[in-house]
Amino acid sequence: MTKLLDVIDLRTSFDTEHGTVTAVDGVSFSVAQGEVVGIVGESGCGKSVTAESILQLLDPSSTRYSGQMNFDGEDLLTFGEEAMRRIRGNRIAMIFQDPMSALNPVFTIGDQLTEAVLAHRKIGKRSARSAAVDLLDKTGIPEPERRMRQYPHQLSGGQRQRVMIAMALSCDPELLIADEPTTALDVTTQAQILRLLIELKDEFNAGILFITHDLGVVAEICDRVVVMYLGEVVESTDVHTLFDNPAHPYTRGLMASTPDVGSDPSADLPIIPGSVPTLHNVPSGCRFADRCPFALPECRERTVELEVLSPDHTSRCIRSQELIGNSPVKDGMAR
Amino acid sequence: MTLEQTVLEARNLTKTFVTRSPMGRTVAETKAVDQVSLSLTAGRTYALVGESGSGKSTTGRLLQGLITPTAGEVIVSAADGSKLTQNTKRSNRDVQMIFQDPYSSLNPRRRIRSILEESLRIIGEKDPTTLRSKVDEALSAVGFSDEHAQRYPHEFSGGQRQRIGIARALVASPRIIICDEPVSALDVSIQAQILNLLRSLQADLGLAYLFITHDMSVVRYLAHRVGVMHQGKIVEEADTAELFANPQHDYTKRLLASVPIHHPSQRTTAKG
Lengths: 335, 272
What we know:
The complex is a heterodimer of chains A (335) and B (272).
Chain A: E1 3-16, E2 19-32, E3 36-40, H1 47-54, E4 63-71, E5 74-75, H2 81-87, E6 92-95, H3 99-102, H4 109-120, H5 125-138, H6 144-148, H7 157-168, E7 175-179, H8 187-204, E8 207-212, H9 215-221, E9 224-229, E10 232-238, H10 239-244, H11 249-257, E11 307-310, E12 313-315, H12 320-323
Parallel strand pairs in A: 3-8, 3-9, 6-7, 7-8
Antiparallel strand pairs in A: 1-2, 1-4, 4-5, 9-10, 10-12, 11-12
Chain B: E1 6-20, E2 26-41, E3 45-49, H1 56-64, E4 71-77, E5 83-85, H2 89-94, E6 95-98, H3 112-122, H4 128-141, H5 146-149, H6 158-170, E7 176-180, H7 188-205, E8 208-213, H8 216-222, E9 225-230, E10 233-239, H9 240-245, H10 250-258
Parallel strand pairs in B: 3-8, 3-9, 6-7, 7-8
Antiparallel strand pairs in B: 1-2, 1-4, 4-5, 9-10
């Protein structure tokens, strides 16, 4: 598989009233053609900022980026605003969590979708409209012709998200960035949207970067997974290794605290104590140490680097070698 | 308190919302809740599941008395065995509510102590000493101290705010708590902390919960009995293990089939 996007040592910092904070701190990962890469973590871990950094959607007056983001051989960070505009929506498209606020309430679905097609393809208005109908049809919306004449409020949440997907696909993007696209949807609708994304990925051979906090969704559609904690990658590997052999205590904690079929209803759920610190209070040493049941004194004394456990598995923990392949996930977590 | 004691009973609850034109003409009638009957038992959790728009939150609000039913009734059994109709001071005290969004459900301009005291004032408690001690008791039940009582909501994280929401429900010494998606807005690690807290409070205080959720994994972990709502009606009701093992209604089957998997090896939709 060809590397489509190769992010190397990305740093995204914001100037705030209380000084500079680094929301994404030395993050590296890549997405290949036809591959679904998940970025997982809780709120405040920097996963959405990572996604927005790729398209440089953050306020330019207060945001600074460094590192490299090679897309099809060119570093996006060297692009000016004009060049980025030709990438956004064209070669890299994005879909968001809340389809209601991403659609304009006073224009019909048809107006908005046709406009998107016109913006990216050199075709006439009439053919743009029929291309829009085709796109809607592809996303599985019943009666696409009728939907074209409707306004966003007349559609259900799942249908609106399909419209957003149709819009994102309007220019055959090579990379689709999906930021929690199913979080606001019902579980039955979520299952349909995930299935749709996989079908479309196979049809267009696009790469997908999927941002989520839900490990169930990761298990469902991702090929590779990047786990983030407080701005850093803490573990990265293929999806099967992640679920079979999680090496980082944070990954193990996330898995253990998600109730599932195996959870004993008579016992308390394992928890990760405390909560994600703010970026103004980044702990020195290992950033997860204060919440970690496996922490040793030395964890707080030095910066912990990503350790390569196998060619395709890295983890930022000095005890990864002990944890990997050892003891079931639920053991050893705080209760 | 003996277990298996019915503390709340809803009989044929119906709520119709009427949409009117600006001139007052009835344009449409929506039956949000349609002939719903259910009962809550002390020390047990009844989960109400269904997709958005199925009427589960409206049912929760009807049970609490935040809105009045178009037809049907809610009967709360008091500790002494007497039956109370809804919206009396006593029933408001007995049935409390926890909301989904811990950010918008706490007044940002009031200190935590004052937010909790208000819950007691509403049900007629005026004595300053009682107010103080009840608030302290509720806060310590959710793991907070007097120092936290002096702070404002913005000084707390999402999970901590939800604990304050729980304390606010507890302060009136209720017997029933309506939990409307109390963990949906929280991260999984925090969600586990809140679920554990709700369970231990139930064990200690014999609370009956109505747990409104769309998350079937949480239902399986927490609920004793489940009602599945679809288009305003309860289409299936069963004990939790039975429902998961033997779903009867088509909609329940669809709901269970949509629950995300827990390991990539269970995939059916995608190539592995």
